[in-house]
Amino acid sequence: MLNMVPSAFKIIRDENKCIQCKVCVKQCANLVHYYDEEKDIVRADDTKCVCCHRCVVLCPTKALTIINYPLDYRQNANWTKNYMDDIYRQAQSGGVLLASMGNPKPFPVYWDKMLLNASQVTNPSIDPLREPMETKVLIGRKPEKLEYDKKGKLATKMPPQVELKIPIMFSAMSYGSISRNAHESLARAAEELGICYNTGEGGLNKDFYKYGKNTIVQVASGRFGVYKDYLNAGAAVEIKIGQGAKPGIGGHLPGEKVDEDVSGTRMIPLGSDAISPAPHHDIYSIEDLRQLIFSLKEATAYKKPIFVKIAAVHNSAAIASGIARAGADAIVIDGFRGGTGAAPARIRDNVGIPIELALASIDQRLREEGIRNEVSLIAAGSIRNSADVIKAVALGADAVYIASAALIAMGCHMCHSCSVGKCNWGIATQVPELVRRLNPDIMYKRLVNLVSAWNHEIQEILGGMGINAIDSLRGNKLMLRGIDLNEKELEVLGIKHAGE
Amino acid sequence: MKRIYAFEDKCLGCGLCEVYCRTAHSKSKDIIKAHKEENIVSGISIEEIMSPKSAFYFALQCRHCKDPKCVKACISGAMYKDENDIVRNNKDKCVACLSCVLVCPFGAIKKNTDGKAVSKCDLCVEVGSPVCVENCPNEAIKLLDEDSEILK
Amino acid sequence: MLREGELRIPSGCSISGIINKDRKRISGENIIKSIALMHDRSNGLGGGFAAYGIYPQYKDFYALHIFYEGLSIKMKVEEFLDKHFEIESAGNIPTRVVASIINKPMIWRYFVRPRIYLENAKERQMDEDEFTSQCVIKINKDFNGAYVFSSGKNMGSFKGVGYPEDIGDFFMLDTYKAYTWTAHGRFPTNTPGWWGGAHPFTMLDWSVVHNGEISSYDTNRRFVEMFGYNCSLQTDTEVITYLFDLLVRKQKLPLEKAITIMCAPFWDDIEREYDDIKMELKSLRAVYSSALINGPFSILVGFEKGLLALNDRIKLRSLVAAQKGETVYVASEESAIRLICPDLDKVWSPKGGEPVIALYNNEEEK
Fold this sequence. Notes:
Number of strands of chain B: 8
CATH class of the largest domain in chain B: Alpha Beta
Shape of chain B: globular
Structural class of chain B: alpha+beta
Number of helices of chain A: 15
CATH architecture of the largest domain in chain A: Alpha-Beta Barrel
Helix content of chain B: 10-25%
CATH topology of the largest domain in chain B: Alpha-Beta Plaits
Number of helices of chain B: 5
CATH architecture of the largest domain in chain B: 2-Layer Sandwich
Largest sheet of chain B: 2 strands, antiparallel
Oligomer: heterotrimer
CATH superfamily of the largest domain in chain A: Aldolase class I
CATH class of the largest domain in chain A: Alpha Beta
Number of strands of chain A: 21
Radius of gyration of chain B: 15 Å
Distance between the termini of chain A: 61 Å
Strand content of chain B: 15-25%
Strand content of chain A: 15-25%
CATH topology of the largest domain in chain A: TIM Barrel
Number of domains of chain A: 2
Number of domains of chain B: 2
Strand order of the largest sheet of chain A: 9-19-18-16-15-12-11-10
Distance between the termini of chain B: 16 Å
Helix content of chain A: 25-40%
Shape of chain A: globular
C-alpha cells in the first residue's frame, strides 16, 4: 500500500565538513546513513530517521544537523499535519497508534506557572555552604502520635521507613523495557546517592540483588518475577495500579525483547510476549487492594513499607484517601506527562490530569481527613529539574520520582521511539550491540552528577527561603505564588497569585 | 609499562578512535584537513567479530611487545623500542619493505597509502596521551598498566 | 487595607521574661522597665504582656479576655458564652487613659466554668480544657469582631497596639502581681497593627511571645489544622502556641520531647548517637517533621509549670538568660535584664535549639 506519511525529519549533511569517517553509518540502528562506495560519500535516507541525535552527537566534525521535514500542508487550524498523518497511518495499518515517553501536547505545565519565595530582611537566608542544609526524608507510614511510657521510654513502635538522603528516586522502568546496562546504572547511582531506584514490573535480575537496600521492587498486574525473595530483596514494595502515561491500560513487552536474561528475570518463557493486564485481576475494589497490601506485608514480615502507585485521574484525591485507609505506607501519584516505553498514543495524549493539580488536591484532601501525616506522598510524572522538585515538595510531596530525566542524563534524546526497540543510546533496547553502547561505569556517574547537582540547587533554594530542612517546605504553599493562572487553578493548587 | 587495552564488551564499533588517531598523526592536526587533504593510516583499527548472537567490535593496535618481532625483522633500522619501551617507527628510515607487517602477530602495523612507510600506534607520545583513549565515547579503550586491577 | 488574620504580616520584636520559681509575686513595674529599655526593637504597632498568678481568688475559673469591636457582636458572644459556660464574674478590664493608645476596642474579662455536660462533651471524651479551647477557637473563627486573647486559669494576657510600656501603663499592670511575667514589643513590617495581632498569643495556660519570622509557617499551620486548630491570625506566634498545645496537652508528650521536635537535632548529630537514642530521635523527626520550626525565632513560653525560653536551632535571633537566686530572667538583650537586676548570679547565652526551662519548685495550692 502506498505510504502517504511524509518523512518527519530531514538530515542535512555539510559536505565541507563530512570526512566520510562513517561513524554515523555505524551508529544508526535505523539504517538512515549509508556509504555510497561508488561516489565515496555518505548519504542518508530521511524517511527512517527518528531524530535521536546519536549521529549528530557522535559526528566528530559536527557535519550533521536534523530539521523537521519542511513540508507544508494547506493551512488548516483544525486538520493539522499531525492528525492527518495519524489518519494515513491508521488507514494503512488498521492498528492502534503506539507512542512512547510522556504526553507531548501543549497542555499547561503548572510547574512553569509557579514562582518561589526568598527571604529578604525580616528573615535571613541561610548559606548551605556554611550551615547544615538537610534534604533527608523518611518514606513510610507514621503513627498519628508518639507515646512514651511511665519510665520516659518511647513506647510507640515505628513502622518501617525508607531513608532517602535526597528526596528524589528513580521511577519504575522494567528490565525488558530498558536494558540491563541502564538498570545497572540506575542501581549503582541510587546506591551512591543514598536514594532508591525502582525495578519496574519486570522482576529483579539476580546480579542486582546486592543493591537491595536502594531498590524498590514493583508488583504490577503481570506479577513478573514476583516471589518471596524478590519481595524481600528491596527496601520497599510498590504495587503498581496505574501509570500516568496510560491510565487504565496494561502493558505489552513484545516477545523479541524477551531474551534469555529477561525471560529468566521475568520468569516467563523465552521469546513470549509479556502481557500486563489492565487491572490486577485480584484487585477489583479498594478492599481487594487492602488484601494485597497486607498479603505483601505478611510476605515481608511487616519490615518493608508498601507503596501504591496510581495514575493521576479525575477523582484521585478520593482514591488516594482510600489507599491511605487501605493500609498503604506511601502513595505514588503519577501525572499525565509521565513517560512510558509504549502506550496507545490517544490514551497517552488524552487521559489523566497534570501531576501538579492531582498532588495539590490529594494533599489537601488527606489533610482535611486528618490523615496526611500518616502516609507519605510521592509525586511522579515529568519532574524536569530541581525547581520542579522544590515546587512538588511545597505542594505536599514527601519525595519525587524521576525517570525521563534520568534517561535523558544517560543520553535519551526523547525521540519517542522506545517501543521500536532499536534505541541508539542503548537504553530502551535488548539488542546486544546497542545495549553495549551504554557503559554503566560512565552512566551511573552521570546520574550521580545529575541528582547531586539538583540537590545542590535544592539546598540553595531552601537556604534562600530561610529553611534548613526540607521537612519545613513540605506543604508550605506560602512559598509558592501562581502566575498567569485563573482563580480556579489557584484554588485547586491552594496558592496565591504573584503580587498577592 | 602502560599500554592500550580494548574492551570488546564496551566497544561500539563507531570508529571515532580511528578518526582521532589520524588527526593526531596528521601534519595539520585539523580533523577536516587531515581527512580531506592528507592520507593518513590510523594506528588503531576497529575489528568486527561476528558471533551467533551479536556482532562484537574491538579496537586493534600495537601491543608494544616486550620482545617485538617487528623490530627484529626491520631491515632499515626504522623500527625501534624507545627509552620508554614504546615500539616506534622512524618514517625517515622506513623503506616500506613490509617485513614488520608480515611478522606482526596481531596485524597492528599497516602500510601507508603513499606506500612509502608503515604506520602504527606510538601511544601518541608526541601529543602527550593517546587520543583514542581520550575520545572514546564509551570508555572502551583504556591506557593501563599490565597489572591494573581492571584487567584482573 | 486587610488586617492581620486576613493576611500574613512578618515582624521583628523584643522579648523579656521573669519567673520566680518559688511563686513569689511581683508587680508589673519591673517587666515594663525591662521591655521599655528595648524601645527601639519595636515600632509602636504592638506590645503585650502575660502574667501568671494574677487571679488567685479566681484560680479555678478560666479567665477569658475578649476584644469586641462593637456592642452587637458582644451580645452575640455573650449569648454563646452563657450557653457554654457558667459565668462567675464579668466586667471591663480596668484601663488608664494613655495619650498614645488610641482606637481601643471594648476589652472585657470573664471568669467562667465550662458547662461540660453540654453537646455530649463527655461522650466525646472531652475534658474541660478541650471544651474551653474549642469554644475559644470557635469564637475567634466564627464571631467576626470578637477576639478571645486570653483563656487560661489564674493567668492573663494584656496586649494592644502601641509601645509595650504604654500598653503596660494602659492596662495598669503596676497594680497586678504575678510570679511569671513575659513581655513583648512588636515591629511588624506592615501596618496596620491590630489589637488581636499583638503578642502574647495564648491558648488556655499557654502564652507565647516571639521574636522572629518562621519560614516553616505554612507547613506548621497545615499540620496543626489537621488536628482541629484554626490559625485565624496567620501569625507565627499563634501557630507555635498551637504546636505546644497539641504536642504537650493533647498528645501528652513530655515538654522536652516537644522541644526536640520543634528544634530537632541535625541528622548528622543523630547519626552519632547510640542506637536507642538514634531510634528515638529518628522517630520524633519522622513523625513530627511538619512540626519542626524553621527560620529565625526566639520565644518565651509561659505555661502551667513554669517558663520556657527557646531559640531556633541555628540561633538566628538573640536570646540571653540570667539567674539570681530563685528568679530566672530571659530577654532579647542582656541590658534589659541588667537594668532590673544588676547583680546577677549567672548570665548566659543559650545555644541554638537549647532550651532554658525554669519550673516552679512547688505545685500551686489547690
